[in-house]
Amino acid sequence: MTPRRKSPTDLRSHRWFGRDDLRSFTHRSRTKQAGFTTDDWAGKPVIAILNTWSDANSCHAHFRQRAEEVKRGVWQAGGFPLEMPVLSVGETYMKPTTMLYRNFLAMETEEILRANPVDGAVLMGGCDKTVPGLVMGATSMNLPAIFLPAGPMLRGNWRDQVLGSGSDVWKYWAERRAGNFDECSWRELEDGIARSYGTCMTMGTASTMAAAVDALGLSLPGASSIPAADSRHSHLATATGRRIVEMVWEDLKPRDVLTDDAFENAVTVAMALGGSTNAIIHLIAMAGRAGARLDLDRFDALSRRTPFLANVRPSGQYLMEDFFYAGGLRALMARIPDLLHTEAPTVSGRPLGAGLDGSSVVNEQVIVPRDRPIMPEGGLAVLRGNLAPDGAVIKHTAMEPRLLKHKGPAVVFRDYNDLERRMDDPDLPATPDSVLVLQNAGPLGAPGMPEWGMLPIPKKLLQQGVRDMVRISDARMSGTSYGACVLHVAPESFVGGPLALVRDGDVVELDVPGRRLTLHVPDEELGRRRAAWKPRELPYPRGWVALWARHVRQADKGCDFDFLEGTAPIPEPEIH
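Above: the chain's sequence. Below: its structure in token form.
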């Protein structure tokens, strides 16, 4: 049976514009004040274009133009577009971390859609936290919504080297600290690594989350792979504008798409891509807004069955531009259809599997064959043990294999300031076998759980040729990063988690195949340490961080606010 399509009087915006009363008179007159006539908007779906453009977010520098191209599609399909700016959480400049403001954007997204005469929304995001923030808010509001990703930037260049954002920064910075990279070369690299607008062109958090949303079914099929500077990205923007108008008439909403199966698809794709560890936190938070079931154990189970197929940095060799030319996400998904719920609905109006028709891999160096995976398991692993009773994560596809099973003495940093003071001290008691531990870097301890988890290698060890060590923290790390970094340890040290009890010299054991993280200290001694442990005070008596501190959940629960989780309905605003 064909679903009933809405009529103009069914539109949510009709409550603002269509009535014969004083308020509707005011709304209509103000629309005419903006230069529009009755023919422009009467009986048409009002489409909010939530634009995260900002001069402080170079990844989104093209969003002014893309918004106009989305509007073109909305007009073509018979809708009325309203561009609405929302918070641009750009990774480059915001401190201490954009993660501190993801929930802020989610709240703003939900409330700007609720408070305005909107029938549907185009969500324009890309730089890391804009993706989950927009999707979380739109899911809670649950109006028809479609996601337009920013797209990755072009490949970087330096002399004869192809550069990838983030990944090559960490690589060459380590060489500079070791004394192997001169100032002139460093400046040349700075000039050549970011050559266009768009997000990081490695498989960082931006590309991982765009692909996850693609696999969730919230963007047009294959949208996540198109480079930002490619003309096909403009075509995508206009097609997205056209499609959202039809979605309003069809009343196709986020929670119709964001099912348990959809989230399993997103996790499976992230694992096949060797994607960012940040995807775990964001997808759990997004699932919480949709009422879907997703936890750390499900991530690990899906990772164990999913082959790693995308040879893209930091876990591989190539970049997102190469991935697009090789066939993109549709081609990769077409290699694992048996691992996907291909009948899951999408915003295209067709099931996920239909969007894979006609896709093929054209470069098997970039997207490898299923029978010759880069690794037999997906890119992320979930660890548990007495050091992380509620879980921790590691990107084991991007670490030196010799460290997959490792036992060594801890070198503990009380916080990031302590790390900065002592990391290059020649007397730091660290050897290549040491396990570096950073405390108080989690959701509350930092606050905001910054990307401090890719702890630098001590300078004296870099000079000895060491390029990877086991590092453990309750922080996150950039999706563009690599190394044997155990992250998201929960509960965090700031609230008295076991990480807070680690002392210099304690033996810590990492066992990635066994999914274990163990602190080899007798329970009696840990009990004495716990009795002596005293919590720190968070020095934020007011403002956003005070709200964050009262309500943020731990990493294993997605770091959403407790009062924003779930699907409980909120009344529509009264139009008086």
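The domain at 44-154+196-356 is CATH 3.40.50.2300 (Rossmann fold).
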